[in-house]
Design brief:
8-stranded mixed beta sheet; 12 helices; 18 strands; elongated
């Protein structure tokens, strides 16, 4: 979340930068500035009245001691009026502050200077590719047909138990899921990420801290009775570990990883693009989160992108790396790279990871600060996160790309986790 001071100091530049996200900031900035002036004016009036009340209280005591009863009673009456005014201003101030806060929450993060203009995913920039395209057997099957053929994922059973988008993994399909989770977690730990096992329900403060709330697109599942939210990613609870925390610069970088089920309503999603594992309401994912010094965050972002690319390479999947354009960038992100893997039977690219730098946008909402060694002033940290990796589309590509006439071959790196080399 942007600060009022930052907006006041950089208004024209911010309007230009936010236009890259196709966001017209001029009107909302005027609202923010007006609300801030109202807040300052209300606070100033309240401070003046409280000062007068303090002086009057002392004066009244002195007047009574001096025997000036009439003057003392007159001062008491004036004090009573001031107290009523202070009550009114005390009621007004939180209303004005909330108005200002609500305006600020409507403003997205500023895109990094390298983010290209564009309207949608069609305008994203491919910056790298990796892996080899598989040699396919004749008449290859899409993963949903393979799942049914080998009885490893049951979409109809999930629909019966819960609804569309909640598959049931069975037999070797369930073992493949567990193998991928363990592989991703082991790789993360080997690369310095400390494992966390977080709750999958979070409160409003946590949802606000990482920018999921207010839920502008209606993507979160809400447990109304307890006012809790099912997490859309482990990024939310992990990053909120550091909410209202003051760190030392010596603590950086702080690297965490977690496996969690993830829940997304995916409102408005329909058609062939959501078939099978392509888009689910519940899915498994291993997340990596880094809390970083602002001067190091883009260097760390590069490292995180390299790390995810190595994971996909170890799974022997063809992939491409995209830099997201302004129109496809999330509300909270300053810069995001997406990884897509190729699913050969569908002949399409499937997104499996987003790696993002939020700079200090989340940190300001979280009040996540740090002090330099020997310093007294606090500064906002930078937060980064990445999918490492989301399972459903990885599984879809593994099944489709590795199918043979004998069955579905398991990549070598996973075989020690699955305990088998082929699904047949």
């Amino acid at each position: 979340m942007l600060t009022v001071k930052f907006i006041l100091d950089n208004k024209e530049l911010l309007i230009e930068r936010l236009s890259i996200k196709n966001f017209d900031a001029e009107g909302i900035f005027d609202e923010v500035i007006a609300a801030d002036l109202q807040r300052k004016s209300t606070q100033q009036k309240l401070d003046e009245i409280l000062s007068k009340l303090n002086s009057s209280s002392k004066q009244i005591g002195q007047l009574f001691k001096s025997g000036k009863i009439e003057e003392a009673n007159k001062a008491k009456a004036e004090t009573a009026e001031l107290k009523e005014l202070s009550k009114d201003l005390n009621k007004q101030l939180p209303i004005v502050e909330k108005k200002l806060h609500d305006f600020l929450t409507l403003i997205p993060n500023i895109p990094h200077e390298s983010v290209p203009r564009g309207n949608s995913e069609a305008d994203n920039t491919e910056i790298a590719t990796g892996g080899k395209m598989p040699e396919m057997c004749e008449n290859p099957l899409a993963h949903w047909d393979l799942a049914k053929k080998y009885d490893i994922i049951d979409f109809e059973l999930g629909n019966k138990i819960t609804g569309a988008g909640f598959p049931v993994y069975k037999g070797k399909g369930a073992k493949l899921q567990r193998a991928l989770i363990n592989f991703f977690l082991d790789e993360a730990q080997n690369n310095g990420y400390a494992e966390i096992q977080p709750p999958v329900l979070v409160n409003e403060d946590s949802g606000f801290g990482t920018g999921q709330l207010p839920d502008k697109e209606g993507q979160m599942y809400h447990v109304g009775a307890d006012n809790l939210y099912l997490i859309p990613t482990a990024e939310v609870p992990i990053t909120n570990i550091y909410r209202n925390v003051i760190l030392s610069a010596n603590d950086f970088p702080i690297k965490n990883t977690a496996y969690s089920p993830c829940f997304r309503r995916e409102a408005g999603s329909y058609g062939k693009d959501v078939r099978g594992l392509n888009r689910l309401h519940q899915f498994d994912k291993v997340e990596i989160v880094t809390i970083a010094h602002p001067e190091k965050s883009y260097e760390i972002l590069k490292d995180m992108v390299k790390y995810v690319s190595k994971l996909i390479e170890k799974l022997e999947l063809p992939y491409r790396l995209l830099k997201l354009c302004g129109g496809d960038l999330s509300f909270t992100s300053a810069l995001t790279f997406d990884f897509e893997v190729f699913a050969a039977a569908q002949k399409k690219w499937l997104e499996v990871s987003s790696v993002s730098n939020f700079e200090n946008y989340q940190a300001n909402r979280l009040k996540l600060r740090f002090k330099e060694e020997g310093g007294k002033k606090t500064k906002l940290a930078h937060t980064l996160n990445g999918s490492a990796l989301a399972l459903p589309r990885i599984v879809a590509a593994l099944l489709e790309n590795n199918q043979t006439t004998e069955g579905i071959k398991i990549p070598k790196v996973l075989q020690k986790y699955t305990g088998f080399e082929i699904i047949s």
